[in-house]
Amino acid sequence: MLELILADRCTGCDACVAACPTNVLDAVPGGPPVIARQSDCQTCFLCELYCKADALYVDPDVNTAHPITPEAALATGTVGRYRRESGWDEHAGDPRHANEHWRMGEMFGIAARLAAEARAGLS
């Protein structure tokens, strides 16, 4: 769940606001966005993927909020990690972090097939 926006890193670009599929964040003119609807966070990490400033801390627990200070968040070593390990943006081409998001189409296809088979009573 999105827990923290590191204001001193945030550039105010609002890419995280635009990327969030459940509208967890609200833009603030002239400042960092605010986490307005934290309980709506699906922990999809899209906000982190689109934050080039690595200004977000997303805790992997989707069900429970875990308030954290900026210092503690940075000490976890996970700020921006999903972006790096996904091979996103400036990390593209890094052989240690291959971007394989293109494979999601294949996964969604398998899920759709299994759902159709379940509806038809085939599985």
UniProtKB/TrEMBL annotation:
Per its UniProt record, what SUPFAM superfamilies does this chain match? 4Fe-4S ferredoxins (SSF54862)
Q: Which UniProt keywords apply?
A: 4Fe-4S, Iron, Iron-sulfur, Metal-binding
For whether the record's keyword set contains 4Fe-4S, the answer is yes
Q: Where is the 4Fe-4S ferredoxin-type domain?
A: 1-30, 31-61
Tell me the domain of life: Bacteria
GO molecular function (one): metal ion binding
Against InterPro entries, the record matches this protein to:
4Fe4S_Fe-S-bd, 4Fe4S_Fe_S_CS, Fe-S_Ferredoxin
The protein depicted here goes by the name 4Fe-4S dicluster domain-containing protein
Q: Which organism is it from?
A: Derxia gummosa DSM 723
